[in-house]
Amino acid sequence: MVKTNRVRKLAAHGLDAVIKMGKILIFSGVRGDTRRYRSLHLYEQLSLAGADCVLSHLTDPRLLEHARSASAAVLHRVALDSYVEKVLHFLRSRGALIVLDADDFLYDPSIMRWIDSPDFQDTVRARLYREEIMRHRAGLDRCDAITASTEFLGEMLGSFGKPVRTHRNAYNLDMLRLSNLAYQNRQQQTDRVVIGYASGTRTHDQDFAMIKPVLAALMERYPMIELWLMGPISAGEDWGGLQERVRSFPLVAWRDLPHRLAMLDINLAPLLPESPFNQAKSEIKYMEAGLVRVPTVASITDAFRYAIQHGRNGFLAGSPDEWRLALERLIEHPAERQAMGEAAYQDVVSRYDPAARGVSYLQFLDDFSVQFNKPPLKFCSGEALTPGTEFQNSLFAAEHEQHPTMVDLARYSIRNRGVGTLLGQAWVFFRRKLAPIFPFRSAGG
Question: N or C: the chain end with fewer CB closer than 10 Å?
């Protein structure tokens, strides 16, 4: 897949060690944005920090070859099966450090009751998800250590007896470039205020419903407000005369998202805080909006408390009154919106810098290696990589994101999970495609 062995300068991060590092293998078992954030972004981060990395996937025919030469491996959403057992065997045979990287709590079936997904109305989908959770738990048991996207998630995973470090989601260099471009090219509107909510999955209807009454009341009071709902989110009913100011947009590719977010005046990030599944989620919505200088009003979860300094680079809201007051303030004071968006931008580019994240992850690997008496992994030094170089373009070229295809995943399933699992996955896939035309409640139709 993708490989680099470049040496970077880390003096800006206070690191002077010049010791060769062992090779780090990063591989995922899924597609999409979760893989991008936790695997492709991590590859960029570690490469910026001078590491010798290989980026792969569970379906990659060269994965075993990569495992034979790795000193450390980072596994993202890799559920255990006979092939994964073989990969882990090769890693252990050379004394490699094995780290599970987690961005959701996928290791205990009891979490399913907190996931608001219409998929689980289908008994086939619910059964497959439960089986996958048990495979993920078995994979966790075979890893040495864990890195998690939030402290709350790390605390949950710490109950399994593994050492855990928090490695927060961060932007990649191309996101920064595209976000700056989107901000520069935005079309400013003075006659309306656009409040937007971007959902990446089909699990946020209840989160949005929590703040819908507040939004409706504000739209009644302020006729210049437009509400933009982006991605797989239901606007719900009962908008009455406000309906014409509620706009829905389809999910867009991540390279197009900055342009869409830059058209907002206020970004929403509601999550039902009593759900441990939600508490474990990261602050991506704040970060992505901050890159285009749009302020966020967010629920009071662990991750948003980390990211947002209330009243400076965004607002935290718990009760309906807190949501109303925060939104009123941003609606009525355009200058404050702009200042808060700029503060969010400065915060994001500083605290979520990919090179700094790479340095911290290498330190985690060092710490884990010492703890498990593995050969020590050390930092490298050299010339720093900066945005705009050919490296960022080669890493995030479209062809690398097109793999694995659905056909690749199907082939993997039938080889390593069996025909029954493949048929179940096919059922779920086509059910999702046909649901808007032929809605039904259960696997029986």
Answer: C
Structure confidence at residue 376 (pLDDT) = 64
pLDDT tens track for 233-249: 888 888 999 999 999 99
CA 167 to CA 71: how far, in whole Å? 20
Report the greatest alpha carbon distance in the chain: 67
The structural domains of the chain, ordered by start, are 2-170+353-434 (3.40.50.2300), 174-351 (3.40.50.2000)
Is the pLDDT confidence value at 390 over 50?
no
Residue type, 266: I
pLDDT at 85 > cutoff 90:
yes
Single pTM value for the model: 0.86
Listed residue (71, 85, 36) closest to 57, CA to CA: 36
pLDDT in tens, 435-444: 555 444 433 3
- 5 falls in which pLDDT band (50, 70, 90)? very low
Q: What is the pLDDT of residues 126-165, one digit of tens each?
A: 777 788 888 899 999 999 999 999 999 999 999 999 999 9
Radius of gyration for the chain, computed over Cα atoms and rounded to the nearest angstrom: 22
Half-sphere exposure of 138 (CA within 13 A, CB side): 13
User: In what order do the strands lie in the sheet containing 315-317?
Assistant: 246-249, 225-230, 193-198, 266-269, 296-299, 315-317
